[in-house]
Structures
1.
Amino acid sequence: MDHSGHGMDGMQMDLPPFTLGRGLAFGGDPVFLVGCLLALGLYGWAVLRLRRRGDAWPLGRVVAWVLGVATVALAMCTGLNDYGMVMFSVHMVQHMIVSMLSPILLLLGAPVTLALRALPTAGRGRKGPRELLVALLHSRYMRIITHPAFTIPLFIASLYALYFSPLFDFLMESRAGHLGMMVHFLAVGLVFFWPIMGVDPGPHRPGYVMRMLELFAGMPFHAFFGIALMMASEPMVDTFLHLPASLGIEALSDQQAAGGIAWAFSEIPSVVVLIALVFQWYKSEERQSQRADRAADRNGDQDLADYNAYLASLNARGR
């Protein structure tokens, strides 16, 4: 296979050895930079719109959204994007961030709920952005792409079917293909984690135990993928077979590092999501308890009185 595509902008083939400073230097792709700025701007506009009319919006959600966008920018708008074109290990860092870390943080920001609250309602008989969003949330398409029968196989296929097929090499021949792949990873992460721990409304919202099972159904495959790369005795992906000599690294050791990164990342998000799920479960139970207490206060404990009367009637009958 011809690997000359990696040098299309004239800099990939002679990158100096990777260091953290070079990897985190500002640069990368303008498409993702514009996307990140838009994401921050639109979210900020929506929060200000709520505040102006006297509605609160949790600070924690703002922080989560900003961190989520920042992690995307970290992976795609820095030197990591240049090194990710030629080093498997750096590419894997990008993949893991945008598919496993960024989606969790972005979903904790509850962007759909914010949009539903901030967007104005269109006049009667008309359809504006808010109405279109509500229609999308209730559509059959959304029910399909958020169902575990779709999200779990998609999550797994994004590793095995992509990396171990000619499709990966084809996409990596151009910067556009590489960027398209990263957009795909971000989208897959969002649809996988949304039904599990997203705070936004969605068509598929199982109970908390089922959500945990969905989470743990996908994660072992991530770990196995990482272990397969670590244990391989020869390079498995053609794209990273011939590394530029200027990097001073071997393809096999770089692949093993990529495998270690994939394996480690399968554990970190699991813990974060599990903590978020347990917290959400606790808050849900707390809200239900408060609702029950308020209902009891309103009807003067009528339910308890009725139950006691029922027990008394049974007792009287028993005599």
Note: The chain has 14 helices and no strands.
2.
Amino acid sequence: MELFAAMERDDYEEVLFCQDKASGLKAIIAIHDTTLGPALGGTRMWTYATEEEAVVDALRLAKGMTYKNAVAGLNLGGGKTVIIGDPKKDKNEAMFRAFGRYIQGLNGRYITAEDVGTTEEDMDIIHQETDFVTGISATYGSSGNPSPATAFGVYRGMKAAAKAAFGSDSLTGRTVAVQGVGNVSFTLCKYLHEEGARLIVTDINKQAVSRAVEAYGATAVDPGEITQADCDIYAPCALGATINDESLPLLRAKVVAGAANNQLKEPRHGDALHEMGIVYAPDYVINAGGVINIADEMNGYNKERAFKQIAKIYDSITRVLEISQLSGIPAYAAADQLAEERISLLRNSRSTFLRNGQHALSRR
């Protein structure tokens, strides 16, 4: 892999390789863009097949956070960390303490949080070495587990997408097929059930499915059947890339709106949704509730204030879909455009300010 070529292609600012022999830490911190503010993005721990695969994932995720934070209206840039290792076997206190010292060394350019393979408890250990970490335990005055916030944001975004597709944002009587019933989507199912939606659910974890069936009267189907379920809304909430060449011809929903990351296997699958007239709520816009919630910690966490901001995901999805319709472009491209415009505007404004300041100094 030609790392500098990859960084130059998508204009990454910094990639930091961190290792601590004693604890076994092997981490990659990727900072994509800090135009809007310090880079915020979680720490993922995963058993990558190769180091190159880990680098590619860090870069991809960091760029995604730049766009997510920009569209969410946060004054934060995008970054991400991946730790190479098995989260079930390789974790230890020394590893996260060492990692915390690396974060501290970045002097606030990067702020981390939990992600796949890491937990609130891991963030508490990192917090012993640095203040540049969010999603720590509520005992520290933090927001704790971000799953309920993410679920609320997806619910709000789904209502906005429903309005675009059906003319009303009411989900009463609508059938929603939920792929994956983890922490986020179980709470999402609660919101949907309370509004009177019918639920179809699936998960490789049979216990999770049974829980949703018992709590919300959901109908269970096999994982391979969920994308072709007879439903109004398809909600991918587990695996990425479920919108692909195989699923598109089978899709019966009029809306795709869920919590999963990287729902489109490739951008062309977003083009296909657009051509089919299926309303798509771009994943990094609709699932931004968690990052909005943890960003509020920087102001001294206030749940009411945070959830008021998360509720505005409804407006963000509405704006994205309006751009898509008016410009005749797919929703994912409209979301990218919205993010890039905000970053570009601030970058240009800052450059003008700096130039004017330099001119003023030169006249003295």
Note: The longest strand covers residues 25-33.
3.
Amino acid sequence: MAHPAFRAAAVRVRVPATSANLGPGFDALGLALGLYDDVVVRVAESGLHIDIAGEGADTLPRDERHLLVRSLRTAFEALGGQPRGLEVVCANRIPHGRGLGSSSAAICAGLMAARAVTSGGESRLDDTGLMELATEIEGHPDNVAACLLGGFTLAWGESGAVRAIRMEPSEQVVPVVFVPSRPVLTATARGLLPRTVPHGDAALNAGRAALLVEALTRRPDLLLPATEDRLHQDYRAPAMSESMDLVQRLRADGVPAVISGAGPTVLALVTDEAADTTARLAGEGWTANRLPLDLAGASVLPLTGAAEADGPGAVPAAGASSAAAGSGR
């Protein structure tokens, strides 16, 4: 492949938060949420310059170790070659280490931005290639599929390739997220999973995952039984006991609640009428927010307003007092 040419103008990419698993759909199901990170990338004459506002501004590296930069580099290699230099500006709103897909957002933003800033990028790296690169970096496809495609997604592997389909979630479903103050590393949560599970538990999860497709797209009244899980949440409880306690309390009250991804955020899937009441159920120590569903997925947008660190879709800092805060795109 010939070395690519790069566009002189900067590009802006917006990527949504995501919730994976959704109870029984371990490493397969994902949901895109209306909470966004924005990234602006411009090819420069030399060097690497990174500005970060919002989440991770005080902790993320500003060099080649940054996950977004590593994703940019991976995409540029697939596109045919590296640019001489890069300027990167990140406006981060997705909480880190909370099970809302912040790493998948960084990966997808980097891949999308690299393709967008490369002349003929879409012909060099199509959407299938983009999904496969994202999965390779992340290690599993559930979050990256939802981040790239938006809506409600089902991802799987087939003959060594990654496949994903997008479904339209019911307009009646309103996500409410309960974000705790302390993070949990995905590696820690995954490390608690057993190598084998009882056959009966696997069978129950298979049925519930199938039911969840119907419940989340057409029958929200079935979401409580459809979100039952026996494969991962109970095993991860030692790393997030307060989150599991909240899930159990909400479910006892008839609220379809699950651990979001690897946790420790709790996700409730409710109706518009119940969303504000549900957001008040967590008590102190949680930041509770109702969010819209994201239906667009990762998008290349006009540059206007790209550097704003706050705005539509912003979530209060983790650890703030519990409150029902509406947020939109």
Note: The chain is about 30% helix and 25% strand.
4.
Amino acid sequence: MRRRAGLVLLAFAVFFAALSPLLRWYAFPRLAKVPPGQYQEVVLEAKPATLLDYTTLRAKEVDKVTIVQTLKGNVEESEKIERSAGRDVVVWDALSYIQGPDGRTVSAIPERYIFDAHTQAPVNATGEMVDGDPVRREGIEFKWPFLTEKRDYAYFDAQTRTTAPIHYKGTRTFRGLEVYYFEQTIPWTEVPMPKKMPIEGITAEQIAQTGMTRWYTTQRMFWVEPVTGAPVNGEEIHREELRDAKKMGMPEDTVTAFAGHVKMREDYIADTVDLVKSQRVLVLLLTSYLPRGFLVLGAGLLALALWLEARSRRPRSATNA
């Protein structure tokens, strides 16, 4: 009986020892993915800020400028692209709009971001765009990969429609979470006028014909929880200018359109941290807790099987003597 029990325990030991790496290296890359129907809203504020007053055509300081970002999963479009791409795809329809202190919309820029549900790598497909302009993304945007590494990543900047490195700057503690801090600086770059203009009846094409241009620079900062790859906080030191503005009848040739230190609102930080903490446990189950537990269990069962085998041999040895 002891020998039979030992063989059964040995079989279970081999099973759990083999299951440990399979769970980590085979199951996890296939099971961990961003859900296609996810909806997320983030509110950021710049307090105070500089904003162009379109009634006087001069920049002035205001108490607050609000930036609302929404990410909405487009399940129907993701299923269409999956059929041709042959992999799990997420389509996010994003919208970033700026509200002045009076609540009026200053600008609104839509995006369609298409990426691999498992790796977060961009999937270049029809419909990928920023503010109606087709783009071909390289690098991540909005979310880092699961199990983020301590290295630089390529990050897509929607304003310039270009990709540049976002640099890993160290490990920090944020609201009880160990996070990786990343930073990216976009130098002054000429960018397109938004399709939706704050002045009724004036289009981006009409402004372009005058010769006035829009320029932009930003210092972008993210605190990323590395297990889930989700940013738990984000800030930007943002500045936009209109140059050759006298061609549009403005009193100065260079006018600040918007400038401010943009930060996530406190209630959205708290909600994001709580969500990430819960999702973090699920990812760790597949990458750490269960694989290590199965490995320890397999080793324990192997030790018990060997002990039973040794016990089963003792009476036989005494009889032969």
Note: DSSP finds four helices and 13 strands in the chain.
